[in-house]
Amino acid sequence: MGDSTGLTEKKRRQAVIREVLRAGTGTTQEEIKEYLLVRGIRASQATMSRDLREIGAVKLHIDGGRACYKLGAPVDILAKTVANYPVSYEAVGNLLVIKTTPGNAPGLCVMLDSQGWREIAGTIAGDDTVLVITRSTEDVQTVIMRLEKKI
Question: What are the extents of the domains in the chain?
Fold first, then answer.
Protein backbone atom coordinates (compact mmCIF):
# COMPACT_ATOMS: atom_id res chain seq x y z
CA MET A 1 0.00 0.00 0.00
CA GLY A 2 1.47 3.35 -1.00
CA ASP A 3 1.61 6.51 1.08
CA SER A 4 0.60 10.03 0.02
CA THR A 5 3.82 10.53 -1.93
CA GLY A 6 3.04 7.56 -4.15
CA LEU A 7 5.90 5.45 -2.80
CA THR A 8 5.29 1.90 -1.77
CA GLU A 9 6.15 1.07 1.83
CA LYS A 10 9.23 -0.83 0.64
CA LYS A 11 10.47 2.04 -1.52
CA ARG A 12 9.83 4.53 1.29
CA ARG A 13 11.71 2.32 3.78
CA GLN A 14 14.63 1.87 1.39
CA ALA A 15 14.74 5.63 0.70
CA VAL A 16 14.96 6.30 4.44
CA ILE A 17 17.71 3.68 4.82
CA ARG A 18 19.69 5.32 1.98
CA GLU A 19 19.20 8.68 3.67
CA VAL A 20 20.61 7.48 7.00
CA LEU A 21 23.53 5.70 5.33
CA ARG A 22 24.44 8.78 3.30
CA ALA A 23 24.39 10.92 6.45
CA GLY A 24 26.76 8.70 8.44
CA THR A 25 30.26 7.37 8.23
CA GLY A 26 29.00 3.88 8.98
CA THR A 27 25.77 2.74 10.52
CA THR A 28 24.78 -0.39 12.41
CA GLN A 29 21.47 -2.19 11.88
CA GLU A 30 20.40 -1.04 15.34
CA GLU A 31 20.97 2.60 14.39
CA ILE A 32 19.07 2.12 11.13
CA LYS A 33 16.17 0.52 12.99
CA GLU A 34 16.02 3.42 15.47
CA TYR A 35 16.04 5.93 12.61
CA LEU A 36 13.24 4.06 10.85
CA LEU A 37 11.17 4.04 14.05
CA VAL A 38 11.60 7.81 14.43
CA ARG A 39 10.20 8.10 10.89
CA GLY A 40 7.27 5.84 11.83
CA ILE A 41 8.52 2.78 9.95
CA ARG A 42 8.75 -0.65 11.54
CA ALA A 43 10.96 -3.32 9.96
CA SER A 44 12.13 -6.73 11.09
CA GLN A 45 15.81 -7.65 11.05
CA ALA A 46 15.20 -9.91 8.04
CA THR A 47 13.46 -7.09 6.15
CA MET A 48 16.27 -4.65 6.93
CA SER A 49 18.90 -7.17 5.82
CA ARG A 50 17.05 -7.71 2.53
CA ASP A 51 16.64 -3.94 2.01
CA LEU A 52 20.33 -3.31 2.72
CA ARG A 53 21.32 -5.98 0.20
CA GLU A 54 18.89 -4.66 -2.44
CA ILE A 55 20.10 -1.05 -2.18
CA GLY A 56 23.73 -2.13 -2.45
CA ALA A 57 24.81 -1.34 1.09
CA VAL A 58 28.04 -3.01 2.08
CA LYS A 59 28.67 -4.56 5.48
CA LEU A 60 32.06 -3.64 6.89
CA HIS A 61 33.54 -5.05 10.07
CA ILE A 62 34.92 -2.44 12.46
CA ASP A 63 36.79 -2.44 15.76
CA GLY A 64 35.38 -4.53 18.58
CA GLY A 65 33.71 -7.06 16.30
CA ARG A 66 30.94 -4.65 15.31
CA ALA A 67 29.65 -4.29 11.78
CA CYS A 68 28.40 -1.20 9.99
CA TYR A 69 26.81 -0.54 6.64
CA LYS A 70 27.93 2.02 4.08
CA LEU A 71 26.86 3.42 0.76
CA GLY A 72 29.27 5.27 -1.43
CA ALA A 73 31.41 5.14 -4.46
CA PRO A 74 32.16 1.42 -4.88
CA VAL A 75 35.77 2.06 -5.90
CA ASP A 76 36.39 4.12 -2.74
CA ILE A 77 34.83 1.47 -0.53
CA LEU A 78 36.75 -1.29 -2.33
CA ALA A 79 40.04 0.52 -1.81
CA LYS A 80 39.30 1.04 1.90
CA THR A 81 38.26 -2.58 2.34
CA VAL A 82 41.36 -3.98 0.65
CA ALA A 83 43.53 -1.55 2.65
CA ASN A 84 41.88 -2.32 6.01
CA TYR A 85 41.69 -6.11 5.91
CA PRO A 86 44.57 -8.52 5.44
CA VAL A 87 44.13 -9.90 1.96
CA SER A 88 46.13 -12.51 0.10
CA TYR A 89 45.74 -13.59 -3.51
CA GLU A 90 46.35 -16.92 -5.22
CA ALA A 91 45.94 -17.27 -8.96
CA VAL A 92 44.89 -20.70 -10.23
CA GLY A 93 44.43 -20.59 -13.99
CA ASN A 94 41.64 -18.13 -14.70
CA LEU A 95 40.53 -18.23 -11.05
CA LEU A 96 41.61 -15.88 -8.29
CA VAL A 97 41.29 -16.95 -4.66
CA ILE A 98 41.21 -13.98 -2.30
CA LYS A 99 41.58 -14.60 1.45
CA THR A 100 40.25 -12.01 3.90
CA THR A 101 39.74 -11.80 7.62
CA PRO A 102 36.71 -13.78 8.87
CA GLY A 103 33.37 -12.28 7.92
CA ASN A 104 34.71 -9.91 5.29
CA ALA A 105 34.50 -11.99 2.12
CA PRO A 106 30.79 -11.31 1.38
CA GLY A 107 31.29 -7.53 1.52
CA LEU A 108 34.40 -7.70 -0.63
CA CYS A 109 32.55 -9.91 -3.11
CA VAL A 110 29.69 -7.39 -3.41
CA MET A 111 32.18 -4.59 -3.93
CA LEU A 112 34.04 -6.53 -6.63
CA ASP A 113 30.75 -7.24 -8.41
CA SER A 114 29.83 -3.56 -8.30
CA GLN A 115 33.03 -2.51 -10.09
CA GLY A 116 31.81 -3.70 -13.48
CA TRP A 117 35.29 -4.85 -14.47
CA ARG A 118 34.98 -6.67 -17.81
CA GLU A 119 37.70 -9.12 -16.72
CA ILE A 120 35.46 -10.61 -14.03
CA ALA A 121 32.88 -13.15 -15.19
CA GLY A 122 31.59 -13.77 -11.66
CA THR A 123 32.37 -14.10 -7.97
CA ILE A 124 31.46 -16.40 -5.09
CA ALA A 125 32.01 -15.64 -1.41
CA GLY A 126 32.37 -17.72 1.70
CA ASP A 127 33.15 -16.31 5.14
CA ASP A 128 36.82 -15.46 4.57
CA THR A 129 37.37 -16.43 0.92
CA VAL A 130 36.25 -14.92 -2.38
CA LEU A 131 36.53 -16.88 -5.62
CA VAL A 132 36.83 -14.60 -8.64
CA ILE A 133 36.25 -16.19 -12.02
CA THR A 134 37.98 -14.23 -14.75
CA ARG A 135 37.67 -14.55 -18.50
CA SER A 136 41.34 -15.47 -18.99
CA THR A 137 44.52 -16.16 -17.07
CA GLU A 138 45.81 -12.70 -18.08
CA ASP A 139 42.70 -11.15 -16.55
CA VAL A 140 43.62 -12.64 -13.14
CA GLN A 141 46.80 -10.55 -13.10
CA THR A 142 44.87 -7.43 -14.17
CA VAL A 143 42.41 -7.88 -11.31
CA ILE A 144 45.25 -8.37 -8.80
CA MET A 145 47.01 -5.24 -10.06
CA ARG A 146 43.78 -3.24 -9.78
CA LEU A 147 43.24 -4.50 -6.25
CA GLU A 148 46.78 -3.52 -5.37
CA LYS A 149 46.19 -0.14 -7.07
CA LYS A 150 49.03 -0.60 -9.53
CA ILE A 151 46.79 0.37 -12.45
Answer: 9-70, 74-147
SS3 call for 116:
coil
The pLDDT tens digits for 81-131 are 666 666 789 999 999 999 988 877 887 887 788 788 999 999 999 989 999
- Cα 88 to Cα 116, 118, 134, distances in angstroms: 22, 22, 17
Count CA atoms within 13 Å of residue 145 on its CB side: 8
**74-147 is a CATH 1.10.3210.10 domain:** no
Per-residue pLDDT tens for 19-78? Answer: 888 877 567 888 888 889 999 999 998 898 888 877 878 777 666 667 788 775 555 666
Q: If DSSP codes are grouped into helix, strand and coil, which group holds residue 132? A: strand
Q: CA 62, 43, 50: angle at the middle one, nearest 5? A: 60
Would you tell me how many other CB atoms lie within 10 Å of the CB of residue 96?
A: 24
Q: What is the CATH number of domain 9-70?
A: 1.10.10.10
